[in-house]
């Protein structure tokens, strides 16, 4: 089985990050490097993780003018990461430029996905920034845009995947953070689901951070979650 779990390696320094990474097996998960560790430790850190056998999702959520995002995505591809992303709210010209920048990498190009509506956001957060649509409506609008630009998938809440699989097709990857095993804290997440329900609904990849990284035994936490999943 190829594990659907991507662990969000969010730590305040490389020492604690390595302490975690050295305790999990690359056959059981991929690793996601986000803004915190990338800002601290940069591309060399990503290369070292890859040399340990982990596939890396570089989660920098690029959101800028088309030219800048295209160059950033190209730099991510040079790094050899497995997946990277942009914000769909940057619009179709931006997403198209990002996709075009990967063309010459051929089969070595990373998967390129787009963030729809952050899983930390609920209806009131959208209203605050002038969006009248509810999270499902807004995420759908952005996911359709991302698919039309030729992206490989989207980041969305597991609450949206059932609808997205029907509307966007089985090949379009749905990557879902906001995953919380039953009885664990939601923290700052708002649109959450358990790992088991997310996979049953159709999530392709589960992004899980604190429920695994803050555990005393991260490999056990990972195994316990994997044991609850029925992969089709
Ligand atoms: O909509 C989004 C997009 C990205 N994330 C990222 O996923 C992890 C989740 O970590 P937890 O500790 O499991 O909450 C984190 O790195 C976010 O930056 C997201 O949560 N929602």
UniProtKB/TrEMBL annotation:
Signal peptide: none
Amino acids binding substrate: 10, 32, 59-68, 119, 180, 189, 209-210
One record GO biological process: 'de novo' UMP biosynthetic process
Pathway(s) of this molecule: Pyrimidine metabolism; UMP biosynthesis via de novo pathway; UMP from orotate: step 2/2
Domain Orotidine 5'-phosphate decarboxylase: 4-225
One Pfam family of this chain: OMPdecase
Entry superkingdom: Bacteria
GO molecular function: orotidine-5'-phosphate decarboxylase activity
UniProt catalytic activity: orotidine 5'-phosphate + H(+) = UMP + CO2
EC number per UniProt: 4.1.1.23
One GO cellular component, as annotated: cytosol
Catalytic residue list: 59, 61, 64
Function field: Catalyzes the decarboxylation of orotidine 5'-monophosphate (OMP) to uridine 5'-monophosphate (UMP).
Oligomer status and interactors: Homodimer.
Name of the featured protein: Orotidine 5'-phosphate decarboxylase
Organism of origin: Frischella perrara
Gene: pyrF
